[in-house]
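Q: Please design a sequence for this.
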């Protein structure tokens, strides 16, 4: 699958504070949809809710500019589409990949990739969206801090070999373009179906931090806009990624 317009142009940087910030600056200057920045090193990488994101030499780090024809309420599906695109690209390397809502890709139950989606709005109008991907690609397991190895892994470690970074970048962009175009034309069903094939949380008991308190809930699936549907003693709740942090997840119940 070859990319079409996303990833045009691609800007390669040796090092930068954050590819998200570089693309945001380009967006404000009128850069077109598809503008992509790839960096070998990130000095101030960030994840969801502004948390620091660990990076190392050999990782694939990039951000992509989108100017989608979507309602603000519909952009909650975009992180899921990116996760599916990454998962399918990893599967092309003959590795299984699971997805953990809202933005983690897992190999053998350990995180190998994180996704960050940030948007700019004006009133009810969506101005642009910036998609960020951080993939632990050609990093030896020794390159991951020991305290993080119980939760994170790398493709090189799992495969026993390195991968071609331009090739997997191209595949991620191509798979995402397929889902992104379908989302704008047909809505979320394709993306949600592809996500649910790989969903590691559905049917599990999870501990979440929600509105300042911890709750134990059972994950029931995804809403039509990609929100996490959970069931607690208080009933069913649909959660967006800004509302909830998953603290732990247990065996299926």
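A: Design:
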């Amino acid at each position: 699958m070859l990319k079409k317009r996303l990833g045009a142009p691609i800007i390669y940087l040796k090092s930068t504070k954050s590819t998200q910030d570089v693309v945001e600056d380009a967006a404000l200057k009128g850069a077109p949809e598809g503008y992509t920045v790839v960096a070998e090193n990130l000095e101030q990488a960030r994840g969801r809710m502004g948390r620091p994101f660990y990076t190392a030499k050999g990782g694939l780090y990039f951000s992509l500019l989108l100017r989608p024809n979507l309602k603000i309420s519909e952009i909650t599906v975009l992180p899921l589409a990116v996760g599916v695109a990454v998962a399918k690209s990893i599967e092309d390397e003959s590795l299984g990949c699971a997805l953990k809502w809202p933005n983690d890709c897992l190999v053998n139950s350990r995180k190998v990739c994180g996704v960050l989606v940030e948007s700019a709005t004006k009133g009810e109008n969506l101005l642009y969206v910036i998609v960020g991907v951080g993939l632990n690609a050609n990093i030896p397991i020794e390159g991951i801090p020991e305290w993080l190895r119980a939760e994170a892994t790398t493709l090189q470690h799992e495969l026993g070999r390195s991968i071609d970074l331009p090739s997997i970048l191209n595949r991620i962009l191509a798979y995402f373009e397929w889902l992104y175009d379908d989302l704008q034309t047909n809505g979320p069903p394709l993306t949600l179906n592809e996500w649910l094939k790989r969903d590691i949380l559905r049917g599990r008991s999870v501990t979440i931090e929600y509105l300042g308190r911890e709750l134990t809930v059972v994950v029931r699936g995804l809403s039509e806009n990609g929100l996490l549907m959970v069931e607690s003693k208080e009933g069913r709740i649909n959660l967006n990624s800004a509302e909830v942090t998953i603290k732990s997840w247990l065996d299926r119940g």
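Q: Thanks. Anything notable?
A: Residues 69 and 184 are 6 Å apart (CA to CA). The chain has a mean pLDDT of 90.
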